[in-house]
Amino acid sequence: MPTILGQNQYGKAENRVVKITRDGDTHHIKDLNVSVALSGDMDDVHYSGSNANVLPTDTTKNTVYAFAKEHGIESAEQFGIHLARHFVSSQEPIHRARIRIEEYSWERIATSDGNSRFIGADEVKHSFVRKGQETRVSQITYDGENWEVISGLKDLTVMNSTNSEFWGYVKDKYTTLKEAYDRILATDVSARWRYNWTSDEQRMPNWEKSYEQARKHMLQAFAETYSLSLQQTLYQMGSRIINSRSEIDEIRFSLPNNHHFLVDLEPFGLKNDNEVYFAADRPYGLIEATVLRDGVEPQIPVDMTNL
Amino acid sequence: MPTILGQNQYGKAENRVVKITRDGDTHHIKDLNVSVALSGDMDDVHYSGSNANVLPTDTTKNTVYAFAKEHGIESAEQFGIHLARHFVSSQEPIHRARIRIEEYSWERIATSDGNSRFIGADEVKHSFVRKGQETRVSQITYDGENWEVISGLKDLTVMNSTNSEFWGYVKDKYTTLKEAYDRILATDVSARWRYNWTSDEQRMPNWEKSYEQARKHMLQAFAETYSLSLQQTLYQMGSRIINSRSEIDEIRFSLPNNHHFLVDLEPFGLKNDNEVYFAADRPYGLIEATVLRDGVEPQIPVDMTNL
Amino acid sequence: MPTILGQNQYGKAENRVVKITRDGDTHHIKDLNVSVALSGDMDDVHYSGSNANVLPTDTTKNTVYAFAKEHGIESAEQFGIHLARHFVSSQEPIHRARIRIEEYSWERIATSDGNSRFIGADEVKHSFVRKGQETRVSQITYDGENWEVISGLKDLTVMNSTNSEFWGYVKDKYTTLKEAYDRILATDVSARWRYNWTSDEQRMPNWEKSYEQARKHMLQAFAETYSLSLQQTLYQMGSRIINSRSEIDEIRFSLPNNHHFLVDLEPFGLKNDNEVYFAADRPYGLIEATVLRDGVEPQIPVDMTNL
Amino acid sequence: MPTILGQNQYGKAENRVVKITRDGDTHHIKDLNVSVALSGDMDDVHYSGSNANVLPTDTTKNTVYAFAKEHGIESAEQFGIHLARHFVSSQEPIHRARIRIEEYSWERIATSDGNSRFIGADEVKHSFVRKGQETRVSQITYDGENWEVISGLKDLTVMNSTNSEFWGYVKDKYTTLKEAYDRILATDVSARWRYNWTSDEQRMPNWEKSYEQARKHMLQAFAETYSLSLQQTLYQMGSRIINSRSEIDEIRFSLPNNHHFLVDLEPFGLKNDNEVYFAADRPYGLIEATVLRDGVEPQIPVDMTNL
């Protein structure tokens, strides 16, 4: 046979599961989008169409919903660990399971201003508005022995309205850019960090707390860095997380430079003193890099944007 | 000529303007997407291509940016009023101007936890994260005499995890739905409300406060209504606003019923006690209605979704 | 009661129905997205939550699928007519039904080049690739007596690489645009045309042929008009349809001016002789107008873009 | 320093360039979206913010437009080769350049049916409609010595309305799926193939012809395979390309299984004889695999979908 099969994986993608937990009258929501990808002894299904080793993608979907009941959803990471372990442990042909999860956050709707005629205090305990800021993401991979957990977020849009410069760069024959000594720096943060928890023997991180802290450090580093380049800001964001969270060894960012161009108002006899900007769509700068704990091998894939 | 020209309008759409205002070291952001549509004496440009009456769309774009400097952006509505008045007043062939504005909200990034070595208090005064919840919208129309201001929001996703029922409905030969006595009620609120401010003689509403209050009342009505149908909830949301805000006479909603289907776990020997839901994409129920102050003529267009 | 209910409608939106028809070994596809909106005696469900007059949206979904079997899908318009008639005729509280349909086109995959060892001629009769060009749309409304059928298309992207000028326009203090004597003219056509078929007494148009012809005339008018403004081109596109198709009385367009800016290559010592363009995203000009058969009243809603 | 910098790259993404070439009155379009990513000696800009080695992303944008004039756009691949070579050759700190290109196809608008009063034959030579089917993609990487060219396409939606089965799979306690002996098989093809051209010494493939042929073979293999699983169809699509095109050594697919569920019409007394389907959105099966020429090392990254 002149052609052969290479790496392959399959499963049900984007299973939208919402889990309501009742603590008396107070309800809690977990709102996830779960994608399953399984690999293993799958040559036959590709070469001949024999499904003898194939657990249907429909079954992987059913398992997601059943596990939401059987195990609950303590965190996206813990839920993914339950799922990945199950597929690899229960199906001999499956050698590797990768679970990807998006999580959407909700917050409670504030009560009426003490207007007790309309509402009992219990009622608002089940009413929510979606936060709508970043999407939390997680990827859990298990090969029967070792775990890899990569978590992060995407679409967290941030802006510094000053304390950003850009000058001293290379100039070639195609360079027309003017140097900037006070510009807006804005980006949509996409970040993935890898935990050094890899084995059931190790103590598991507190996934919820770790996420909140990594997010906080990243935002603060963005805000507090006087920036000479988006690369410098990126590195500060990453090293702040590595230095603050011992459970995280590696982080990769993909940061578009959301250009805000100062509008030339001189034709209208007006001076634009860093006040009025045009927020551009395309093209945009795109800055991507990995920041690592010294001595650690990088594992997060380089490409967070698609070909 | 067997064919004639009907209603027409033109202008530059989606001008993305970001305005930074400096109050000492504290910066403030207004982040808008402004669309201009002009109507008037425009037969010639359609019939013969004569542009003698046409102010270029490029000029309407320039005007948006120039006005951000000249007038500032106190509120989306006030900014739209400046623009609409300008086009109608300054260009004889233009008889009507309609300004549509989307506004994106930002909040400040919280400071480091008293870690004064890294950061001075001033630095965080220019750092922002986009809120990412609803998009605020506004439409300002002026014909040289009267104003129409319609404001609102879209993509505000809300959910009640209980206190919603649906039963007692019509059953025909195509009806298979089971009655529900405890279901999730979730929707993406799209709402437009019309102000009764129509003339420069009247006292102008406080646009910012009015928006915040209308949004608050709407959310509370959603949370506090024990719902027998999404229509009932919609009506409560609308009447709460009309009753609470004397400056608003009419509101129209377009509310998708974001179905959350209880997953059947019985095949797996599990009982699903209103815990595990599948969040569906399409199809979805779509409930649309206008709520009016009694005695008022409706003006908000019925179609908030496109053909 | 200080607030009252205004116009309202409800139903199941975006029912994705695919119908396969077998003509021997040759299969045919109809691929639709059907949205149902019903109006009528619906005060109670809004005021009190009584569903006594409410046919569930779930039932409207079931009806779409059942009718695909019972009536087949001869055309989107004919299918919508069956549905609208059914809802108004069979349910006393329902006084008006509006069916909106999107249709996606497919074409056959070409056979192997006479390689008869691999494939019998029958096999390719069931293999399709989605055309991917415009989306065909239709809206059928019925009130028990009269019909309104509005059809059209969206997202048909066209470009003339020459024969477009723009000059002789108004210049005010905010005008900086240079006049153009040879520019690219490009747009994404969104068009809706209204048929003058309104009653079961009239002979029904051939919906499929009418669509193909209207589309063809529109494209040819775009290609063949030497344009002094996008408004002029729009009018030519509309009047060509009205003049060529007696079954169509009115058409409305929403045409973004997809700007292609000539890139200034002089800083690099290069002359750009209408060769290299930057295709911009936002902002864009937006030109909207109705073209009517003389003597006819316009009925297509003015707003094809959302507030 | 406890943290270090890992892999990094930067550049301007999504430069939208449209090139018009004039062959007498006949115009030709190339419509590309070009993204530049450069790597090399970039430690300083991350650690200290020194831009001494940084060619601005704005300059990479300018270069894209200048090269469209200087070199023309013979094919996306050839254009990317010019760009990648330039950045690595002309800038000492840049050791690797990766150019990603999306290409949008256009076809000519058909002429009027011999209606010579309205149109000269020359006019339609400059009028185009966007094809709207797949997006062609290409990625060209150069490190100063070797080339890697990966091309392909995305969003090519195909369907077989019969000749697809799925049965004989693993059944565990979470399996409820019924076996299928005649189902619809539909997918949105995303494919990337790698050329074995790696050095300037080798004869370069005919990029345009190679793309057309690879696409044709892939579509035919999809149409002609009697499918027992989407994996089997995928493998046939890949091996058909490898076997037919000696310049291609490896191909990777990401194929969603676009589920079309047969609607249960029995509650309405109707039999659904593989006629009426519900086209589902989420979840969907996702089948991904690499097909290789025997003896070749895989290089295409495994992840074509994002974390």
TrEMBL record, chains A, B, C, D:
Q: Which residues bind 5-hydroxyisourate?
A: 57, 166, 183, 231, 257
Which GO biological process annotations does it have? purine nucleobase metabolic process; urate catabolic process
What InterPro entries has UniProt attached to this entry?
Uricase
Q: What is the annotated role of this protein in its UniProt record?
A: Catalyzes the oxidation of uric acid to 5-hydroxyisourate, which is further processed to form (S)-allantoin.
Q: Which NCBIfam families match?
A: urate_oxi
Where does the source fall among the domains of life?
Bacteria
Q: Quick one: which residues bind O2? A: 57, 257
Instruction: Please report the name of this protein according to its UniProt entry.
Output: Uricase
- Residues that hold urate according to the record: 57-58, 166, 183, 231, 257
Q: A GO molecular function for this record?
A: urate oxidase activity
Q: What pathway does the annotation place this protein in?
A: Purine metabolism; urate degradation; (S)-allantoin from urate: step 1/3
Q: What class of enzyme is it?
A: oxidoreductase
Listed A to Z, the keywords are: Oxidoreductase, Purine metabolism
Active site location: 12, 57, 259
Reactions catalysed, semicolon-separated, are: urate + O2 + H2O = 5-hydroxyisourate + H2O2
Q: Name one Pfam family in it.
A: Uricase
EC number, as in UniProt: 1.7.3.3
Coiled-coil spans in chain? none
Into which family does the record put it?
Belongs to the uricase family.
Species of origin: Streptomyces microflavus (Streptomyces lipmanii)
